[in-house]
Amino acid sequence: TIPIELSDLDTSPLTSNPSTLRVFMTGASGCIGHYILELLLESDRYELFLLLRSPEKLRLPVHNHPRVHILRGGLENVDPFIDLLPTIDIAILTAAAWGGDPGYVDAINVDANLKVMAHLDPQRCQQVIYFSTASILNQQSAPLPEAGNLGTEYIRSKYECHHRLPELAVYDKVTTVFPTLVFGGDKDKPYSFISAGLKDVTRWVGLIRFFRADAGFHFAHAQDIATVVNYLVQHPSSEGYREYVLGNPPLSVNQAVEQICDYFGQRIWFRIPLSMWLADVLIKVFRVQMAPWDYFCLHYRHFVYAGAVSPASFGMEPYCSTLADLMRVHGIPGARTRVRKGEFKIQN
Question: Which of helix, strand or coil describes residue 210?
Fold first, then answer.
């Protein structure tokens, strides 16, 4: 596939094949985007239009693919493709600005995403899958005001965009998904930010096993996120706007430590509680500078959400449902390593 200009595109109301669905996608070169694109390519139902600032970052073999069109550009300048948007049947919006100049973050995460959705034809567009973040939600999966008041530029902008979705003519076609902690990546796909540092974290298992903390979280592998998104694409809402938090069932930090220790064959002899008052004392004594959002998270602690979904929620087999699965798919060996069929050895 080579980057194309608007003049090369067919922007007529119907595609050459009436059974083909036109899919406009942003963020295909990211971790989650790679997994979603890979699943979409398995079906001949979709004609894919990928908006990419840097097409060379796309690792999947889509060159010369007859159903893939690469639109060279970023969300900050989608104007060259505005006439294409009314001909789109499905939009999958995963791209986001993670940091930097606040004006730029707002321009991408709020203005540009809303602009793309505003130019979709509500009569033609079947649905929009819009990616937000679970960080803007409280434990009842409702908007968390502190995310808008104290959040980082990324979180605050996602909160603002979510707040403005009802303004859109296609609002009843929108499905907002809120990923939790995202892992993923392999030789053919870029690693998520968390996965990139996973092996470094495991070095601390011998120490963290002796501490107890009162906190909770969800995690999701990008393959499972893509599986859910692919399911949602195939099952548009018949009841208007909908939302899903994407993640496996919640884990407490203590459960996570126990599962990781079991995977690595590390015994837990005792555990020292880490209390919040001690953390506050240490922050004051050592004059630790913390951003308002970081300080809020330190005290909020339980980032768990009602109704989080995974492939299992829709009757499908999850790719990565446990922390042991997570370690294995990232090539991190545990206490038991298979030598050959039927035999194991214990690693020191």
Answer: coil
Element housing 123 (H / E)? none
Q: Which helix (H) or strand (E) holds 253?
A: helix 253-264
In whole angstroms, give the CA distance from residue 338 to residue 344: 5
Q: pLDDT by residue (tens digit) across 314-337?
A: 999 999 999 999 999 998 888 764
Give CA torsion, residues 127, 128, 132, 136, to 10 deg.
-50
d(CA 333, CA 21): 42
For the CA atoms of the chain, what is the radius of gyration?
22
pLDDT tens per residue, range 3-47: 444 434 444 443 445 579 999 999 999 999 999 999 999 999 999
Q: Are 75 and 109 in contact (CB under 8 A)?
A: no
Strands of 238-348 (E only): list them. Answer: 242-246, 251-252, 272-274, 336-340, 343-346
- With H, G, I as helix, E, B as strand and everything else as coil, classify residue 310: coil
